[in-house]
Amino acid sequence: MVDSEFLILLGNRLIDAKVTIATAESCTGGLIAHCLTNIPGSSTYFDRGVVSYSNKAKMELLGVTEKLLEQYGAVSEQVARAMSEGIREQAHVDIGVGTTGIAGPTGGSKEKPVGLVYIGIATKDGTKVKRFHFDGSRLSVKEQTCQAALEMIKDELM
User: Fold this and answer.
1) Model confidence pLDDT, tens digit, residues 32-78
2) Of 117, 78, 79, 82, nearest in space to 96 by CA
3) Is residue 103 scored above 90 in pLDDT?
4) Number of domains in the chain
5) Are 79 and 58 within 8 A, CB to CB?
């Protein structure tokens, strides 16, 4: 799991930068929000977390379009971008984080294997999306995705 010293450092950076953050999580099921709120003082920067596991939730809560989901699938760069931008807009925060992927052990395909994950970070300066392919159990994929998202947030603050 994520190192507590890293979380404290990240929390302090968020506080020092005076930024707010919200998460839109699919494959991580709220794990990023859990980690961010484990830090004393997290109410200073953490606004909300949405677990948008279904396509319906992605559309209703984050403004992801049905056309986007049909054209690219829920696990795609385009949907991760829309999720991170959608939560940033809905929550009126500085940083929106979106995760979508296939944690497994089922649900993968040749084109989209188990462990495929996209993470989006939306800010006023634009949106960055990274593609990952993690190995291991379902929990391991979720934890690796969480760690990668937190690292991306840290990088955004640098």
Assistant:
1) 999 999 988 999 999 999 999 999 999 999 999 999 999 999 999 99
2) 82
3) yes
4) 1
5) yes
Tell me the residue range of the domain where 22 lies. Answer: 4-157
- CATH number for the domain including 20? 3.90.950.20
Alpha-carbon gap, residue 41 to 113, rounded angstroms: 38
Q: Which residues contact 127 (CB under 8 A, 6 or more apart)?
A: 81, 84, 85, 120, 121
With vertex at residue 55, the alpha carbon angle to CA 136 and CA 128, rounded to the nearest 5 degrees, is: 65
pLDDT in tens, 123-141: 999 999 999 999 999 999 9
- The number of angstroms, rounded, from the C-alpha of 91 to the middle of its chain's C-alpha atoms is 14
